[in-house]
Amino acid sequence: MAPIIDFRDKLFGEKIEDSPSSKVILCNWQDNSLGLLIEEIVGITELTETEYEVEIERANLKRGYVDKFLKLKDDIVISIDLTYLFDNKQEDQIIDALEETAPEGTFDDSAGE
């Protein structure tokens, strides 16, 4: 099991309404699994450094949680940096939730030290 974070609530302070299109994306955060509840999945693409065309420089649009704006064919893809989504207090809460959901003896919090 993994704790689930409402992504829209985290970014904009508005909860995602439960619907058939809302999904949970399983992410690796500090060597632990974390679920991000999102409104909808439009597409799934695994990107490597050489596959995207160009990083779009838009300093005035870039927020802390945005790692990069990437142009992929005709689309703009936003790469999210999970380390910027949580302050220290929130990080502690998530680590506590990870400890609660992990099978006994399997949680490793050494990445957070």
UniProtKB/TrEMBL annotation:
GO process terms (BP): chemotaxis; signal transduction
Residues in CheW-like domain copies: 1-91
Domain of life: Bacteria
InterPro entries to which the protein is assigned, alphabetical: CheW-like_dom_sf, CheW-lke_dom
Protein name per Swiss-Prot or TrEMBL: Chemotaxis protein CheW
Species of origin: Liquorilactobacillus mali
Lineage of the species this protein comes from: Bacteria, Bacillati, Bacillota, Bacilli, Lactobacillales
